[in-house]
């Protein structure tokens, strides 16, 4: 279209997209124009990031070496159907340990969503077992998993994780608003709820005008910070995060990744599902690869992207190793 003489305005926060196809870029931050650059003037990702966020951003994380703790979450031969009644998860088996991040790599639509839903009570398993500290917790209600300190950051934050027309302060206490210290004898303690919002807004750097604003008023990055605050501050034993940085700008994505690492360093077992292979390889201590709802193999974090890619295309780990 450009070559046909059309003028095109592209609104995006994807840096690779900007550098590869844009002729001129204007950066906005907090509603203000920060600057304009010609992309052919050797503009780098770092240049654009600093304009977008106002500071340097880490694109590559260095994880502290950490020996995983005891095995606390076991998934055994799990099978589940998708919304069309077809098998989407086929005899999936995986173990999670305290103090580690296990990444789930795979092309979207290979059973990742069904796996997360089953592990949090949003979908029934057809067969198989989920164990927490040796206790069978398969096919329980979502409330049961919440009470067992299994936290969930869903892929779709609008329909699954936030009440978009509710206030920010109430979204922060959605899981426990009927319990102390947020309520007593069925009556909400508004002062405590507002104080909790003030603390979380400061700790998680949530940009919002007022605790009574609705979740709909926030940017995607700040909505994700509200979810992070709620799920991480509940002191999870297991944290499941599905596509945690999808749709976020580089600054918000960096923040989310650091919080996931902090949660791992505090001793939780963290399961991260992401279509971003670079993200998976940087964050994960181990990488499990899903294809067609089946586990192709488990590799160590920092594995060769080509080796992971082979498994993502349907080659089993033992076959890849035998060909090496």
UniProtKB/TrEMBL annotation:
It is an enzyme of class 3 (hydrolase). SUPFAM superfamilies: P-loop containing nucleoside triphosphate hydrolases. GO terms for molecular function: ATP binding; ATP hydrolysis activity. This is Ribose import ATP-binding protein RbsA. The keyword Transport applies. Its EC number is 3.6.3.17. It comes from bioreactor metagenome. Pfam families: ABC_tran. Keywords: ATP-binding, Hydrolase, Nucleotide-binding, Repeat, Transport.
